[in-house]
Amino acid sequence: MSEFWVYFQIGLHHVLDVHAYDHVLFLTALVIPFTVKDWRRILLSVTFFTLGHTTALLLSVYEIMTFKVNIVEFLIPITILITALFNLVTIRKTNRKESVNLVFLITLFFGVIHGLGFSNYFKTILGGATNSKLVPLLEFALGIEAAQIAVVLVVLLLAYSMQTFFKLSKRDWILVGSAFVVGVVLPMILENEIWNQY
């Protein structure tokens, strides 16, 4: 049980680390358009993201997939920017159900990118033989899912507060929240080291 808590807490810390807030930023952009009544779709979106994240770690840990770290580190903020811009582009749409499957697939793919960004560090944590890596990986994924649900609840609470107490319309909340995410993530993209390499 103690080993479970070790990897579970690593998963929690990975999402909630204040020095690596890209995960929280992506989740914020993902959840901004929704309210508590959309809980099923939110839960599915977050779970698809975790599945992509875990799949990438699995492929990397078992040396099935190799990648260039600098490209992945560049793509992570790009996924955040795309998600926030999608919110802004579709802000006038009252019914988003027609694009649900596409959004889930894109979220899954973005989860893969974010997972690859953490895979090198996770491999150093694991070490050992390949047959001992699956259970810690699943324990880590549970930690990620728990932390993501906590972040989602905070964003939903913030949305509720802004719309109830500050009388911000849902449209304005999406506009302000998504614009904030864009404002935070653009410097991350522009200051990325990849611009100095190509």
Q: Can you count the beta strands?
A: 0
Main sheet specs: none
Indicate the overall shape: globular
Rounded to the nearest angstrom, the distance between the terminal CA atoms is 47 Å
Helix count equals 7
Counting helices, strands and paired strands, the structural category is mainly alpha
Flag low-confidence runs: none
Task: Return the string of H and E elements.
Answer: HHHHHHH
* DSSP helix fraction: over 70%
What is Rg? 17 Å
Report the mean per-residue pLDDT as an integer: 88
Report the β-strand fraction as a percent range: under 5%
Structure description:
This protein has 198 residues and is mainly α. Helix content is 75%, strand content 0%. The chain has seven helices and no strands. Helix 4 packs antiparallel against helix 5. The longest helix has 31 residues. The model has no long low-confidence stretch (mean pLDDT 88).
Features:
single chain; mainly alpha; 7 helices; globular
Please outline what is shown here.
The chain has 198 residues and is mostly helical.
